[in-house]
């Protein structure tokens, strides 16, 4: 089995991270892999906001927790890096394109020995005025829809075993 297929089969969502920050080189490689995701008509409509600032990370976590209806819970499971994928609201394939970026980010993290997990509620966050302002403060113009958060860090657990694949999910028209 080749390395890419092995990574696809082995990668799991991680729900416990160490507080240590991965290297900038590893973060940059993960981001680059995300930028190489397939996109409809080659539009490359998705962008990535890399959050490594702990104060901002914790603010996003608190808002995400509130949107999710929880209290005193870190929806990013302690991961120190949050890679937020957004896509141009005017592009009809934005969710599909952004989802492919998310997949590449998670596979790249796994390939570097890091854990990751896709966390939702980015859409709701980036409809809030303070997050629209954050984008402006970062020099990002236009209308953007939050697709997802890729929480990344060193695993503080064993790699979970994959569940058995459900039968009856492939139909062949030969």
Question: Kindly, what is the distance between the CA atoms of the first and last residues, rounded to a whole number of angstroms?
Answer: 25 Å
Amount of beta strand = 15-25%
Largest sheet strand order: 1-2-4-3
> What's the number of domains?
1
Overall shape: it is: globular
What integer is the average pLDDT?
97
The counted number of beta strands is 4
* Count of alpha/pi helices: 6
Whole-angstrom Rg: 17 Å
| Unreliable stretches | none
Structural class estimated from helices and strands: alpha+beta
Which CATH class is shown? Alpha Beta
Percentage of residues assigned to helices: 25-40%
The run of helices and strands is: HHEHEHEHHE
CATH topology group:
NADH Oxidase
Name the features.
four-stranded antiparallel sheet, alpha+beta, 174 residues, NADH Oxidase
Overview of the molecule:
The protein is α+β, with helices and mostly antiparallel strands and 174 residues long. The chain has one domain: NADH Oxidase (3-Layer(aba) Sandwich), CATH 3.40.109.10. The protein is 38% helix and 17% strand. It contains 6 helices and 4 strands; from the N terminus they run ααβαβαβααβ. It has helices at 3-10, 24-35, 54-68, 94-111, 122-125, 129-137, and strands spanning 46-51, 81-88, 115-119, 144-153. It has a 4-stranded antiparallel beta sheet. Helix 2 (24-35) packs antiparallel against helix 4 (94-111). The protein is globular, with a radius of gyration of 17 Å. The mean pLDDT is 97.
Could you give a quick summary of the protein structure above?
This protein has 174 residues and is of the alpha+beta class.
